[in-house]
Amino acid sequence: MGCKGPVTYNACSVVRWNDGTSYPIQSGHGCIGCSEEGFWDNGPLYQHRSQFPGFGIESTADTIGTAVGLTTIAGVAAHAVVTNIRKHKVIAEVHAEEQKES
Amino acid sequence: MARIVVDPVTRIEGHLRVEAVVENGVITDAFSAGTMVRGLEKILVGRDPRDAWAITERVCGVCTTVHALASVRSVEDALGISVPPTAELIRNIMLTTQYVQDHVVHFYHLHALDWVDIVNALKADPKKAAELASSFSKWDKNTAAYFSAVQDKIKAFAASGLGIFANGYWGHPAYTLPPEVNLIGVAHYLDALEWQKEVVKIHAVFGGKNPHPNYLVGGVPCSIDVDEVAAINSERLNLVARLISQADEFVNQVYIPDLLAVASFYKDWSKYGGGLKNHLSYGEFPTKGYGQIDGFKYARGARCWGAT
Q: CA B297, CA B304: separation in Å to the nearest integer?
């Protein structure tokens, strides 16, 4: 995650520029995402970013947050189901082995 | 009649082609052309004028900053904006930094090796080089030990094939500097490389980074408060002051003495070319706003010496 949230990826705030002297946010200017591919066409520099490339045209930060949240919940649920199925299989195998032994 | 084509012309950033018509050893006509279309005027059409500086600035990474400044000034002129006095001072500090750094980089790294023979510096006596350098400058590195260490470095470099300098005209009779001056030149070429990356930290303080520091239509993006950790505070301003005094020392004890020393061995070259007959300057470093040309520290004007 870079200075401009999920649309920039550089580590400017950690590494900083010119032997660690500063970086755009520290000097007071907003991030213009200059290390991103085709940054000059990623929208006006001085407008609030309510739409991110890669997401839906009308997406706002809130709906993206909700979407990410829902995906996470879905992921947790799917993980639980898969784990359950895998465990069922292991339990069945252990049962079968026990029955063979007895 | 011969027509000589030099393409690309190096020693500059960008792409330049020059053709010269030679008759009996005299150039009778010449043509020059910039051969790479940048198209910035086209790129800017339809964009937010506040964004123009960021795109315009990227025309060149050596003379970074100046195009951004020209861009914000144009937008401010169109919109009738005058910037606050503090912003004007900060912009002047940033521009002066570039102005000084660019002169040094241009002299040492773009064309010094047209005058300074790296390989010939191996023949120099480091002690004599130190004595000579001390005679025209008070730089604290003017010692035999220092020049000897630089010579060792060049020796190892030459033994490895001279890297990117392998195809230079080393040993060409047009090089007229004595070995000691060549050694001083190469030593300061390396020192200048170190120094130029230090001085541009001034751009990082006020503009976040170099190359391509940030500008802003209407002023500057940074705020100043000597006690505030997140602003341009006393620590930041002390860093800028230190870098300015280092720049002052480097220019006055290294760059200008070297320039004069090298020039004194190439006086013949002053006969070449048409010379400076006309000079036009837009002036620079405003003190009362960019619209008030009487407040410029460098005056605006045109001058003609012997019109042709």
A: 21
Residue identified by tokens 């630089």 is B150
Is the Cβ pair B47, A28 closer than 8 Å? no
Find, among B70, B208, B285, B26, the residue nearest to A16 by Cα. B208
Looking at residues B49-61, what average pLDDT do you find?
93
Percentage, residues of chain B above pLDDT 90: 81
Lookup result for tokens 């000691």: B180
Note the pLDDT tens digit of each residue in A12-62.
999 999 999 999 999 999 999 999 999 888 888 998 765 555 554 445 556
Give tens-digit pLDDT for B244-257.
999 999 999 999 99
Where helices occur in chain A by DSSP H, the ranges are 12-15, 24-27, 61-101
Q: Which two tokens stand for residue A55?
A: 């997401």
Helix axes B179-199, B144-159, angle to 10 degrees: 90
3-state secondary structure of B286: coil
Strand pairing partners for B27?
A: B22
Mutate to test the interface with B, among A4, A17, A34, A39 (most CBs of B within 10 A): A17
ipTM score assigned to the predicted complex: 0.87
Other beta carbons within 10 Å of B305:
10
The DSSP letter of residue B2 is: E
Q: How far is CA B252 from the centre of its chain?
A: 15
Where would I find the H helices in chain B? Answer: 40-44, 52-57, 66-79, 85-105, 126-136, 144-159, 179-199, 201-207, 234-250, 256-264
Answering whether pTM is above 0.90, one says no
Break chain A down into helix, strand, coil percent, rounded to 5.
50, 5, 45
Give the C-alpha separation, A52 to A36, whole Å. Answer: 13
Q: Which residue(s) pair with B6 in the sheet? A: B18
Name the average pLDDT for chain A.
75
Q: Nearest Cα to B88, choosing from B74, B71, B69, B75?
A: B69
Residue B70 to chain A, least CA–CA distance (Å): 18
Cβ contact B163:B214 at 8 Å? no
Min Cα separation B196/chain A (Å): 11
Residue A96 has pLDDT above 90, yes or no: no
A29 touches chain B (CB under 8 A): yes
Res B276 pLDDT > 50: yes
